[in-house]
Specification:
Blueprint lengths: L1 H28 L6 H31 L3 H26 L3 H15 L2 H27 L3 H6 L1 H19 L6 H29 L21 H11 L7 H11 L7 H37 L6
Helix pairs in contact: 1-2, 1-4, 1-5, 1-7, 1-8, 2-5, 3-5, 3-8, 8-10, 8-11, 9-10
Amino acid sequence: MELQALLITFREVLEALLIIGIITTYLKKTNHGKFTKFVWLGAGLAVIASVGVAMLFQVVFTGFAAMGSEMYLKIGIMLVSSVLLTQMVFWMAKHSRDLKGNMEGKMKHFISTGNIVGMVIHSFLVVLREGVETVFFFAAITGGDIGAAMQGWGAITGVVIGCVVAYFFFKGTMRISLKSFFKVTGAFIILISAGLLVQAISMMQDIGLIGSVIPHLYDLTWLLPEHPIDYAHFLRDTGTAPLLSGDVGIFLKALFGYSSMPSIEEVISYIGYFVAIYFLTAPKRESVKAKEEVKGGVKDLSPQAK
C-alpha cells in the first residue's frame, strides 16, 4: 500500500505543481507577478477542498459499512479508480507537449480581461482535480481507510519528492524530459490500474456477484503464495515450504494485483486490459511514424538533397 501511495501522490503532486509552476513562471516573466498570489490562493483553497472531500468520502464509506454494503462500495471504488488512473496517464501523455502553451494562453486571456476570479477558479480546479483523484486512489488501495493512506510514510514521501522535483525543475538545475518521465511513471500507474481491476473482479466473485467458469486456472502457491497464511497452510499440508515468502506475495498483490490462484476471468481481464491499452496507443504510434516518413520524404525532395 505504501509504495502505491508514494507513486500516486508523487505523480499527482508533481502534475499539480508543474501546472501551477508554469502559470506563476509565465506571470513573472511577463511582469505580472502581482497575480501569482491569486494563483496560489486558488491552489490553497483546492487543497482544503480536497481534505474536505476525503472527510466526506470517509463518512459515506462508514455509512455503507454500517449498512453492511461496504464490499459493494469497495468494488465500485476499485473499478472507478482503475478508469481514472488509465485516463490520467492518457491525459498527461496527450497534453504534456502543449501543456505550457495552453496554460500560458489561458493566463494571457485572464490578464487581458482582468478576470482575477477566473484565474483563482482555474488554479483551484487544476489542483482540485488532482486532489479528488488522490482521494479515490487512496480509497481503492486501502479498502476505504483514506486516513491510513494519508498518514502513512508512502503518501508523505510522495508529496515531499514531488515538491523537491518540481522545485529543482523550475530552478533549472534538473534537466529531465517530461515526456520520458511521464512515460516511465505512467507504465507503473498502468500496472497498478490493472491490479485494481483484477482485484475488483476477484471480490465480485468472492461475494457471488459474478460467477466463474474456472475458479482456479492455475496454482502458484508452491512458488509464490499470495499471503503468509497461504505459506503456512501450504507448509502444513505438504510438508514443503514454498520457494518464496508470502510477504513477497502481499507486496505484489498490493502493488500489481498478484494472485497465486486466479480465476480464468481474472487472467483474461488482466491480459485484455493491456491489449486494450496497446490498441488505444497503436494508432498514435503509427501516426507519429507516418509524420516522420513524410518529413523524411520532404527532406529528400528538397533542392539541397538534389
